[in-house]
């Protein structure tokens, strides 16, 4: 086999670059809403449940970011139980493992030679923002963001800021087409 096309064991630097690229994956954001909800009647909101990530400073920052996003849409925060809408936020984290196996050789679509398996452990975070009708407590909108978390709190704050900005980019949804 030509030396320039043979598979070589990845270097430690190559593995580090691969891990960093995996960690830089874009935030996955999904939103959905009740097509029968009249968002024009929602102008105030109160917090039903705030985030409980286990880190009080992270939780405060998420509340500040959601408050800022809603303020930018013309909504005002009201006293508990007094708004047109209620906001409920959940923060979930989960440890994940990824196993990548690298082989020293590749011939006729077969992996040959000694193998090296690299196990990468990372934390994935999920941020869920629910908006409910303030009277009926029926859900009217939901935003969900998933992302690999960093060990750096400042980086995670940037991720939360981007996730919330993307969630609320098209909020409130317009009326359903008739």
UniProtKB/TrEMBL annotation:
Keywords: Lipoprotein, Signal
PROSITE patterns cross-referenced by the UniProt entry: PROKAR_LIPOPROTEIN
Domain DUF4136: 29-173
Entry-linked InterPro entries: DUF4136
Lineage top rank: taxon: Bacteria
Cleaved signal peptide residues: 1-25
Record protein name field: Putative lipoprotein
UniProt lineage: Bacteria, Pseudomonadati, Pseudomonadota, Gammaproteobacteria, Methylococcales
């Amino acid at each position: 086999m030509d030396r320039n096309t043979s598979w070589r064991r990845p270097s430690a630097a190559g593995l580090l670059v691969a891990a960093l690229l995996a960690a830089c994956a874009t935030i996955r954001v999904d939103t959905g809403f009740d097509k029968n909800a009249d968002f024009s009647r929602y102008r105030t909101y109160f917090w039903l449940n705030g985030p409980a990530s286990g880190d009080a400073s992270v939780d405060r920052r998420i509340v500040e970011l959601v408050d800022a996003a809603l303020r930018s849409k013309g909504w005002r925060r009201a006293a508990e139980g007094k708004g047109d809408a209620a906001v409920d936020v959940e923060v979930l984290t989960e440890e994940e493992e990824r196993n990548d196996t690298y082989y020293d050789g590749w011939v006729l679509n077969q992996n040959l030679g000694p193998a090296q398996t690299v196990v990468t452990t990372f934390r994935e975070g999920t941020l869920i923002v629910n908006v409910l009708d303030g009277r009926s407590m029926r859900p009217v909108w939901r935003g969900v963001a998933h992302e690999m978390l960093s060990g750096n709190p400042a980086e995670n704050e940037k991720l939360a800021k981007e996730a919330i900005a993307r969630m609320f980019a098209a909020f409130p949804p317009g009326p359903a087409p008739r």
